[in-house]
Structures are given as C-alpha cells and as structure tokens.
Amino acid sequence: MTCRAARAISEADLLVGYTTYLNLVKKMDCFHGQETYATGMKHESERVIHAVDAACRGKRVAVISSGDAGVYGMAGLILEVMEATGADVPFEVVPGIPAANAAAARLGAPLMHDYATISLSDLLTPLPGILDRVGAAAEADFVIVLYNPCSARRQEPWRQALSIIKKHRQPETPAGIVRNAGRAGESVKITNLWHLENDEPPDMLSTVVIGNSRTRVVSGRIITPRGYEL
Known about the structure:
Elements: H1 3-11, E1 14-18, H2 19-25, E2 35-39, H3 44-56, E3 61-64, H4 75-85, H5 99-107, E4 108-109, E5 115-119, H6 127-139, E6 143-147, H7 156-165, E7 174-179, E8 187-192, H8 193-198, E9 206-210, E10 216-218, E11 221-223
Parallel strand pairs: 1-2, 1-3, 4-11, 5-6
Antiparallel strand pairs: 6-9, 7-8, 7-9, 10-11
Helix pairs in contact: 3-4, 6-7
C-alpha cells in the first residue's frame, strides 16, 4: 500500500469494499473505526452504487481494491456508475502497487522488458477472448503475467493458456509463482514452464510470471535483460 492510499483511508468517513479486503484494512494503523460497507464476490456493482450514493450525500468515501484500483480493480466501475447516474462528486484514483509489480520484486527483475498482464478469470470476459490474448502475447514474445490463474471450480483456462504458451516457449523458460504477495503467508517459487504445466496449479491468491525467450535465472533470481551492454 502506498502512503497516499493509507492517508486516503484514514481521512475517509466510509470504507467500502470486498469483505476480505476490509478485514485486512481493519488491522492497519490507517483504520480508526470508520463506518464500513462490505459485500462478497459478484456484488461489485452493489457496493459501488452504495459508495457513489454516500458520496452524493456528502460523505468522504474510500472504495478499497487490492493492488492498484485501476488494474482489475474498482476504479473503472466507479466511473461507469457515476456516468450512468449523473453523479457529480470529487473523485480520485489513488495509485497502489499492482500484484504484477509486487510479485516481480520478489522474483528478481522479470519485467525489465515489455510484458503483458492477462487475467484468466472468465467471469466477466469470455474465455475465447482471453485465450486469443494469451496466444498473441506469447507469439509476440512478451513476458506474461497471469492473474487469477485457477479457482477450485475453474482450472480449464489455466490448462489451455499453458498449452498455448508452450507452442511459443521452450519448456525450460523461467517462471515464477508468488502467492499472497506483500501479505502474511507470502510464498515465492521460481520454476519453469514445464513444471507449471505438470505441477499442482496455483490458486486465486497467486500471481504467475512467465519469462520471454531471453529471460534467465541467475543466483536464484529471474532476470529479463533490457539489452544493456556490459
């Protein structure tokens, strides 16, 4: 979390968010007993409408996302709701630290060159479109960061994505899995594309980084060279 985000939470009258994220915030120094409004998964629109309505009534509202609110977060939905309702209230997207960056820092320097982030969750995006993006990124030799790789009931996108990537990458291509990046219980694993396909799949708390054709592992850290001459 950035210092600016912590200050925004501290200054808010009302905190709105996914139940798990609000529970994390309540353990932080920036929380001092403010009013909260929480919902579970698949109720994002409900909580954003509540937040916008509260802001229109004069409350200072902080809508909580994990990582960065503008990267698979709530910032876009808030703007859509404000557009649909005609709400005219002060609005700010407070930058955070995306999971891709938090994970990369734990793995070494895998994102030193061009990379693509792709969510494998097909709750809001049709799976064929997701797999088309995976194929395009793999063919273009981007380092690939996969969000939401697997859930208990959704593992087929993961298997299909790896099947596509391996058509364009060698089995020994470095890869990393970071679970709970920046949170309690964090784990870091450096592996390769072959093991990703054959080992136990990662879960929804994991971020997966798959290197490009130049990515390598040095002294237990993943490096994607930028091209500097040494």
